[in-house]
Specification:
Length: 371
Amino acid sequence: MVEDAPKAASGGRLVPVLRWAAFGACVLLFGSALARTDLAGAWHRIKDIGLLSFLVVVPFPFAMAMDAWAWRGLLQALDRKAPWSALFALRIGTEAVTNSAPGGALWADAISPLLVSQRTGIPAVDVFAASTAKRWTVVRMHAAYVALSTAFGATALLHASHALFKSDILLVATLGAALLLLLLSIGIESLAAYGRVAGRISGTLGNARFVRLRTWVEERRHHFARADVQLARLSKNKRAGAAAAWRMLGLWLFEGLESVLILRLLGAPLGVIEILSIDAALSVVRSSAMFTPAGIGVQDVGYLAMLQAYGVPDAASLGPAFIVLKRVKEAFWIAIGFAILARPGPRAPSLNPSPVEAEIQLPPQEPPAAT
């Protein structure tokens, strides 16, 4: 038992080392990819756009607005009312965390319930339940977006696949990714809504050897039980789920339209469906590369390769111009997002328990034994 402790500690140190090593490799990949392009030509393309280049920041807040709208609807399904403006501002803030740090999506999901609870007065448990339901919904609609874009843009994807890999593998992989996303969303919902995960976690922590931890868990055991009830409630509410789903589909469409806007400004001779098929395929890459902020490096190389495979004229200058505008847009909203998070928001008073909370009956528990 004693010998296992150093091994566990070394294993714990190895994970962040590997994460940062992967991040460094992606940054090098990003730099090497740009070094092989026509950066001077890219700069001239951006200069030719002039003030119209500021339009690239416009689609992002619409995407966040759809996300906040879906979140608000899920909270309403739990009899909680949150101002849309507060959710919208916090979504911009948490998206800044997602796009600026390795594993940022995990950090953003962790802090979101606390921030919303602090600024709206809604219990963090209810916000956590709505956030989890939003998570399985956004993954499901990501699957729908990828599948629809791939289906409509199948001809262009097949052409790009043969240009890059001499086979149909790109089309098959993109459709396969859509199926995996769908299965993942179903798995998240089933586990969260019917696996009583929160209760199992509280039971495991309640059996810990540390008295303070056991006491902390026992004092909050009703919160864990309530989380399970609220998650099951959201899963059964098909009307709220359907409303959140089409709003989340709107989020993905606005993200795709951002790529359409940038490429049209740069003069790329591609249709909307062709651009959406590129964006859908690379959105899977971006979501998978959680170890690097906003898929830096991996996504950029993908865009450069896809634009060349689609036969875009002068892709050596248009590709890096597209990437630069994308990254500048992200930097712009990251700065605003952190400014929102840094601003002390109003501390709303705690709301009364929801009707569901009164229905939760917990079995009597013996006080934790002293060690």
